[in-house]
Design goal:
The chain is of the alpha+beta class and 351 residues long. Helices cover 34% and strands 25% of the residues. It contains 13 helices and 13 strands. Helix 5 (60-70) packs antiparallel against helix 6 (76-86) and helix 7 (94-100) packs antiparallel against helix 8 (106-119).
Amino acid sequence: MTDRIDQLLASKDGVDPSLLAALDADDLADALGRALTREDAHRVRALGILALIDPSPLGPLAQAVGQVLAEPEPDPFTVAAALDRAAVMGRDAVPLAQAAALSGEPVVALAAWRTLQQVATSEFLDTLTQMAPPAGDMVGDQAAFALSVIAYRAGLPGFELTPADDTRIVAIPADEEQVFVINNPAPTEEDVALLSRLSAGELYLVRPEREGMRAIECGDERMLLCIDSDIQMGMPDTFVRGPSLAGLITALAPLGTDYSVRYLVLTWPDGTGGFHVMLCQPDGVQAYYGHADSDEISDGTATFGLFTVDRPGACPISLTPSVSASGVVLGGDRLSMTETVTDRLEPEAAE
């Protein structure tokens, strides 16, 4: 056991980049040995260190993940953690996750489908569609969402989500006084540096550039809206032409040490010249929904309301985004409730 690996395993506030850069062959061997030892209490964290050191398809992480998946009677939570770490390998993780997706252990199958939705490209879509279990339980629902994410990322129709109707929308009551203001500043150098530590797989193969990023500050939370650079150049026309994984919203950890993906920004045409926008959690739970009618798109800009979808812990917002090739600007009231509620918008009566 080496001192540097001991320090990394003991760290509670993120990984020290300078310590990571100082690792040598002995440190690598130590981390790999811990990751391969079933009895090691730090096995999962050792897998995480290997993911930071070498995510190559022939590297120690791939070796460790492969062995974890091949173990007789493996611990399902260790397997799930290994699949989660494997996302940093990008498309090289697909064969490992694809095999694990057939597991009869729900914890393993869920983790496998979530990894597939991060890194699988359209060439795998037909095979994954054929092997996906039917929707209706946790694994089937996750598989269906994974297929949608893969298809949206490639701009392929046929896997569209269901838009949220008025019965599923929650709003800030008119007399509500306990609200946060949502600010939308430019990202800082630290934001960009922390985001750059995430691999392509961890970013769902979304390719953001600083020009397409905006910070979101709400209460004690800080998030980053990251739009794919290729998607941004064609906004909003891209949204009318076909489905897209337009970007991500990442959230800063409480200690400010790293960002992780909180929402996926998915868009698809409405068939009448407008488009839908859905922000989903990685588990497929729909969080926010917006719809831009054709008459809300003009002069290269689309402006629409974004609303909270009812779910456990739903927090109503009042927000009006505008999207163009210049990026996303958050307008409107820019308010969020400080507490969750269950009140819903009543659908307007038909005249």
